[in-house]
Amino acid sequence: MTESRRWAGRIYVTSVLAWSMLAALPSACSTSTITIGQEEADAGGVTPLAPADASQSDSGQNVGLCPTAECPPGRTTCPTNPFPCAVDLLTDNANCGECGNECPALVGGTSSCVNGTCALRCADSLLDCNGYVEDGCEVSFRNNNNNCGGCGVVCPDLHYCDDLECVCAIKESCGTCGNICPPPDPNLPVFPPEWNAGYGCSNGLCNQPVCKSDYADCNHNFPDPTGDGCEIYTLTDPKNCGGCGLTCVPGEVCAQGECICPCGSACFKRLEYDPTNCGACNIRCPDVSNGEPVCDHGICDYRCNLGHADCDHDSLNGCEANILSDPLNCGGCGHRCDGVDGQACVDGQCTVTECTIR
Fold first, then answer.
1. pTM higher than the cut 0.70
2. 114: domain range?
3. Is the pLDDT of residue 97 over 90?
4. CA–CA separation, 197 vs 222, rounded Å?
5. Number of structural domains the chain divides into
6. 227 and 247 part of one domain
């Protein structure tokens, strides 16, 4: 205990002899105090120790929590981490099961620590189909005809794997894969060029009146001879952007069938909170270590990731403090774990153990 710490409550004895006898008894806590109460918080003080069970035992003693330098079960101190008890041997990839046992990188994936054992984890779109960890994740299933979307999923004849799905390899097929439509009957009426229409496959039937690619009949008068055919080009029409009736809001432009609100237009309202256009167009907030950039009322700032904090208020090193493991900033900046020498910070809490308070 430092001299700056004071206790709000004390146990008073009514005789000098009783006090002397009580002071001579050894304390079960790692500290030597026998007083009970709430510690007055000072800068960097530890969390006050509260009794875990207010009921008295048969011996007339209270069970409480005292600071300890011992690591909780499953936790240990390893040379790869500067903080005591910061390593969880059940989940730490650099110290899996024991200090220094690093889970290796494998072909197409990594091995991660699960319950103290390195387990294979495949990268996106990769699978371990043969069950051998030695060759890692050997199968790409996104465009694999023999493993399309999963191990052993084989695409049928005339099909190939495209983005996890077996699709027909004959693009001109109509209705069923391999069904090729014959040339249109020359006796069919010819559509005017401005109609943007022709004949093709529709609803699985060949040589039906259809709109050309990216054109649409939004007024529903095609193929009526008195109509205007497929009058809308959906890639650029802001009133039918990507399809009939899909209207862009004022200020948006239709580009490649999508409504886009460019920075600087009337519809763009994000200058106060958009980290890529903070306060003005193309003003990008810088990246930050252990955090993410944010735009706060048009001014660049940053937000720390869970478990980190900016304790030195220096944006150049970002959120430098690990408040889950750092005993000098345990759970928050300046909150020290110094109840006993070597007291650790585990998950943002200073380590304690059960003890008997006399």
1. no
2. 87-137
3. yes
4. 9
5. 3
6. no
